[in-house]
Amino acid sequence: MKFSLLPLLAVATSASPIMNLSPRSASGCFAITSFYNSGSPHSISARVSFNLNDAATGLYASCFASQSIQPSIATTPFPTACNDTSVVFGVEVKTGVPGYWLTIAHLTNGNKTVDTGSFWLGADIQRFDNPSGNPNGDYDYLNVPTSFSVGYNQYTQA
User: Fold this and answer.
1) Where is the signal peptide (predicted)?
2) Phi, psi (5° rounding) for residue 10?
């Protein structure tokens, strides 16, 4: 029996092309700059702030939250909106997991696509002592670099 691929190839080339399917997940990186989380031990407020940039998409946002209670390191629940409301974040302490966690999400495409990542900030709280000796100038801060990267995964809901 003789077998030929020609009829099969003819059918394959005449069939409609296969649709391009977009990936449901991808990855990228948020560049965080000017990160700051501190508060005065004698005050009742603490604040966290940072700038976020995603060079791949041109996204830029400024994020800020303040807390009017002790302790002197700010936490804010996820999702807290940044100045670009498509970007949300949270700084949280989770039971059983040491330290502070930064979670970031960027929502696009009618909230069907989300870029999301988390970063462990640690638990190294330091105190800045005002050199003048005035304790009103003292403050506690979360000892992390002011610039770092948060890798993210991108998910698209069908």
Assistant:
1) 1-15
2) -65, -40
78: exposed, middle or buried (C-beta count within 10 Å: 0-12, 13-18, 19+)? middle
Name the average pLDDT for the chain.
Answer: 83
Q: Where are the domains of the chain?
A: 28-156
**Taking a C-beta distance cutoff of 8 angstroms, is the pair 83, 144 a contact?**
no
Q: Is 80 exceeded by the pLDDT of residue 2?
A: no
SS (H, E, C) 50-107: EEEEECCCCEEEEEEEEECCCCCCCCEEEEEECCCCCEEEEEEEECCEEEEEEEEEEE
Q: Count CB neighbours of 146 within 10 A.
A: 10
Q: What are phi and psi of 130, to 5 degrees?
A: -60, 120
> pLDDT confidence of 1, banded at 50, 70, 90?
very low
Q: Which two tokens stand for residue 54?
A: 């995603």
Q: Which of 9-23, 69-83, 87-101, 118-132 has the lowest mean pLDDT?
A: 9-23
Task: Judge if pTM exceeds 0.85.
Answer: no
Q: Which fold has domain 28-156?
A: AOC barrel-like (2.40.350)
Which amino acid would we find at residue 53?
N
